[in-house]
Each structure stands twice: as structure tokens, then as C-alpha cells.
């Protein structure tokens, strides 16, 4: 599926970071690092690239001016939505071209279980290995 990613110029790690900002809302680089299991310093280049592209914004925390808050911009939300829509379209085409009706039905039965597992993993703040 990675071969079928839209050409928006973002790396997979930048896209993952953008998705995490989307899920968490207003957050800090340290919180993003913890959720993505990387050091906040390692995120600096990706954060700066997303800032330069106008996909996220950064502002000082009103309560602690030493901290920076990161949040999604409308442009970032639009890019994520377009990326998801293109991946969904590719997946639907691949399923239609590859799966039998029975395989498709089985997949639809399993999908809610997989979603439940993914949501539980996201709530726990862990990522699959």
C-alpha cells in the first residue's frame, strides 16, 4: 500500500506526525514524541517541514511560555483527508479486483474487530511494532 501513496511530497514519518497531530488536537513536541515513541528532538525537522508547508501551526503555551503548542491547520486537515480518500479508493479497487465475494464478506466481518484493536492501541498510546 505504501507504493500507492499520493504524491504530496511528505515522507511517511511526516505524514504519521501530521496524523498524530490530527488525532490529538493541540499538543506539544514532547507529547508527540512520546506518542510516536521518538525523542522530541528527532521530530524537529519534521515539525519544521510541516510548519513551512502550513500544515501545522506552533504557538507558545499561554500557561508556560517555554512550551510550544502544535496544532493542525485547515491545510493540514485537507491534505490528510485527500491522502485518506486516495488510499481508500486504491484499497477499494484492489479489493474489487482481487477478492472473491466470500473473501470480501469475511473481511467486512473482521474489519470492526481490527478497528477495535487499533482504537485500543491508540488509546494506550502505543504503536504496533
TrEMBL record:
GO molecular function, one term: DNA-binding transcription factor activity
Pfam families, per the entry: MarR_2
InterPro entries in the record: HTH-type_Bedaq_tolerance, HTH_MarR-typ, WH-like_DNA-bd_sf, WH_DNA-bd_sf
Gene3D superfamilies: 1.10.287.100, Winged helix-like DNA-binding domain superfamily/Winged helix DNA-binding domain
Signal sequence extent: none
Residue stretches making up the HTH marR-type domain: 1-116
Cited PANTHER family: CONSERVED PROTEIN (PTHR39515), HTH-TYPE TRANSCRIPTIONAL REGULATOR RV0880 (PTHR39515:SF2)
Protein's recorded name: Transcriptional regulator, MarR family
Species whose genome carries this gene: Mycobacterium sp. (strain MCS)
Top-level taxonomy: Bacteria, Bacillati, Actinomycetota, Actinomycetes, Mycobacteriales
